[in-house]
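Deliverable D4.2, example record:
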Amino acid sequence: MTLNNVQSAYKTSRIRLVLVLVILAVAMLLMVWRAVDIQVLHREFLQGQGDARHLRVVNMPAHRGMITDRNGEPLAISTPVDSVWANPRELLAARSQWPSLMRLLHLDAATLQQHLAKRIDREFIYLKRAVSPDLAQQVVALGVPGVSLQREYRRYYPAGEVAAHVLGFTNVDDRGQEGIELAYESWLRGIPGSKRVIKDNLKRTVEDVEGISEPVSGKDLALSIDRRLQYLAYRELKSAIQSSGARAGSVVMLDVVSGEVLAMANYPSFNSNNRAKLRGDVYRNRAVTDVFEPGSTIKPFTIAAALEAGKYQPHTIIDTTPGFYKVGRHLVRDIHNYGVIDVSTVLQKSSNVGATKMALAIEPKQLWSVFSRVGFGLSTSSGFPGEMAGLLSSYKGWREIDRATLAYGYGLSATPLQLAQAYRVLADDGQMKPISFVRTDAIPSGEQVMRPEVAAQVRAMMESVVHDGGTGTAADVLGYRVGGKTGTVHKSEMGGYAENRYLALFAGLAPISHPRLAMVVMIDEPAGNEYYGGQIAAPVFGKIMSGALRLLDIAPDDMQSLRTQLVQVSGPSQVPLPTPVPVQQVPDSTRPHLKRVSTGAL
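Output generated by the structure prediction step:
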């Protein structure tokens, strides 16, 4: 190779080296410029674009407050569950994986296609809310693009159908829809929090960036309901309705001293854990929403009005002969001709003629005033959603026949809760106190709406109803003095009253010596030949009251009946007569009421 050739090759290599270095330098400068452009000049814009693709603000669910009974036993709790959601655009692009997803979630292709197409501009839609943990894991295992899980809370009701009408239920968003859940929505509802997270391309959270707001859990609520008494009331009510072929029924039990609702049961009921079968005609709380004519259960208040007017005393004689009484063109009838009886026997025998004569002997305003003061025609102000006030018309428009029918419970209407409230007034020496579904640890102040001596006289007459010769002997409770009143009401229909459709009622108190519980039992349309309140409702009252008095450890006040029963079983020589503890009447301010007690099996 010549010298010239060597020099030429060397020159060419130098040019190539310089060119390579220039290219590398330019590339380096471009890279530096790009870095400056990305990191300095357009940093905020590019950071925003990146965040828009991977940084998300997600909600942090807050659980709803727990509802408990008066003893702390759970009645409604919120449990964490997962809901399946999807990005419509991504899921539409993964149509080949739809069959397995649809099979798990029980969806059909047409519905899913329509659901996604309508929301194509969104990034989030629910496919299935509140699924089971097993189903959630199966969905995740499919790995379908755009499909993910979100943690939520679902309401669970341990008592099921037993307390369904009182508690109500929540919707799929955990918002109260009926009952206590609706009435105390603002108290029970939690406030969700939020946080900023980074998600990968599979929508999985890979990093928590920052917390925006902390979730605030809902507040717990302790009801006045005693779960043991609620089970007892529901069990006996259900058994009676099924055995009698009745259409429906309700039971309301109140604490006499505090005005708290200790039990409120309805049948038919529903399982609030199964939302798929909820229907409006099933989940209304009949004890506060359905009104009826109270029939003969109103007679204690008719007698109270006559006693207050000063024209009658418990032993005042009334002639009910010959078993009917003409009022204008109408006849008021008794089942039997009771002849000449006193006021106490009017109540014991449930004489319509006797009650009518007393009502017509006093001023209309006096009768109306007593009915109104004990709560008829007025809401109890319990705060329960949908509560009805019933009907009590103004006395100014009453005719004689109106006064007569009102005397034995027709021409006015009330709910079971209203009727129980009125009987609670009789039990509490004439004091009206607020009705509460929430546990109270202090005895509320009351308003004196009836003279104490009048209330005491009526209670004494009510006790005769459950003794021999009375209409409600099936309501008697061994070892306790019980008082009450039966009622059998023809149901109203278009054009008048039905001949063969009845309401069977019993309302009463126990123990009479120192009343602690007031209760109303209403059975709607019992079938068969037995439909009187004393035949259908009184036995239910007796069974529930017997169990309740013992569950609450209320001391017996009728030792003689206990001894008589034991003598019949064991013989007189083996049964010593216990010394009864004298019952002292104490003022309301110091009278104990039903606070928290130990729980146990029924």
